[in-house]
Amino acid sequence: MNSSVVEARSGGLELVMAELGQRAAASRTALALSAGAQRDAALRAAAAAIRTHATDILAANGRDMDAARARGLSAAMLDRLQLDDKRVAAMAAGIEQIAALPDPIGGIAAEWTRPNGLVIQRVRVPLGVIGIIYESRPNVTADAGALCLKSANPVILRGGSESRLSSAAIHACLVEGLRAAQLPEAAIQLVPSADRAAVGMMLAGLDQHINVIVPRGGRSLVERVQREARVPVIGHLEGLCHVYVDRAADPDMARAVVVNAKLRRTGICGAAETLLVDRACAPAMLPMLLEALAAGGCELRGDAAAQAADRRVKPATEQDWRTEYLDAIIAVRVVNGVAEAIHHIATYGSSHTDAIVTADAATAAQFLREVDSAIVLHNASTQFADGGEFGMGAEIGISTDRFHARGPVGVEQLTSYKYVVRGTGQVRPG
Domain containing 159: what range? Predict the structure, then answer.
């Protein structure tokens, strides 16, 4: 059923959104009290439904892709949107991996006994109703819905208009899983409208029914969420990721890491946008790195030293050091050692993900200690900035916040805690 029909029958978008909030809130207690095994059964049934309905999901995605091409979306955006057999299978497998994780709800994070005999426990509980606003990637519908279900949080999903049909087909599979496990279907809801006003209503909290907002998208979306949200937000502004190649780097390793970090998938937030090369190794290392990137179809923009190393390097502007391209473009700068690389990252980075390639343990330790990003890597590609690669099954996004959750936001990061205190009749002295 298309969104206009839903809105017409329900009396308009405001009523539709209010009902979503009320239904999510009404399902909160049942979901919080559900057994982990029941939620896992729902996830496994949803994964099976995705495999069963793969043809329908791909057909819906094909219609989304046709509309996106007609609108002139960039190659990077089309890559984010596109599904194929492999990506659909990965969605199902990711949901099963989430189901296999330990139940995060009810776990005791800490326990201690006071001198007066009181036993105090810090126990994990759901965050509440989560609103997730995202663009382009239809797989986020599966990942976010599954993670919220595993952590017993009702969720309201608002995907981008470009992935509307794909997301609806995936959401239907998630609901099938809920139904099979006899859990409230309102535990995972999809906003049935592409109207941008729906985002504003979610940011206002849907009459205090939404407890947390998670944005996953481009800079304009995240800036709007941070500016307008009236409920707490978990999110990141952008992924300005760096790879620093140190003088002690192995050349073959450096080439492999740099090419993968930039070109494996250019449209994800963990893709490297800036390459920093130590001046001490630049004469031998830089031409080889630039040649490998250019051979992969990457546009090169760099400082004077980079331009001197390869005639294909275009002059970089100040804005290039601040740009998340999400495309086959990279900015290249030659720096005077690890200290200058760290300074560049602190000046231009977004505290997302940054990597060093070096065989020098002391230099690596300095980089890992001093770079203040959510994820720092030694001798590994920035494209490992992913909850699945961290063993979390999947993630809602990479948080660059410094409160509550930082880095990949998985099931554990979608919980809070309460204190459970057990006594034997203790009263507090007056």
Answer: 3-235+409-420
Distances, alpha carbon 144 to alpha carbons 10, 271, 297, in Å: 26, 21, 33
CA–CA separation, 170 vs 60, rounded Å? 10
Would residue 226 count as lying in a domain? yes
Question: How many CB atoms sit inside 10 A of residue 182's CB?
Answer: 10
Residue with tokens 């009290």: 33
- Under 8 Å between Cβ of 245 and 285: yes
Taking CA atoms, 425 is separated from 71, 76, 107, 116, 420, in Å, by 69, 64, 25, 10, 15
Q: pLDDT by residue (tens digit) across 326-359?
A: 899 999 999 999 999 999 999 999 999 999 999 9
Are 250 and 211 contained in the same domain? no
What's the rounded Cα separation, in Å, for the pair 40 and 250? 44
Strands 415-422 and 119-126: antiparallel
Contact between 269 and 398 (Cβ < 8 Å)? yes
Structure tokens, 124: 């994990």
Closest Cα to residue 286, out of 277, 294, 295? Answer: 277
Confirm whether 429 is domain-assigned. no
Residue 50 maps to which CATH number? 3.40.605.10
CA dihedral angle for residue 58, residue 60, residue 66, residue 70, rounded to 10 degrees: -140
Q: What is the pLDDT of residues 8-58, one digit of tens each?
A: 444 599 999 999 999 999 999 999 999 999 999 999 999 999 999 999 999
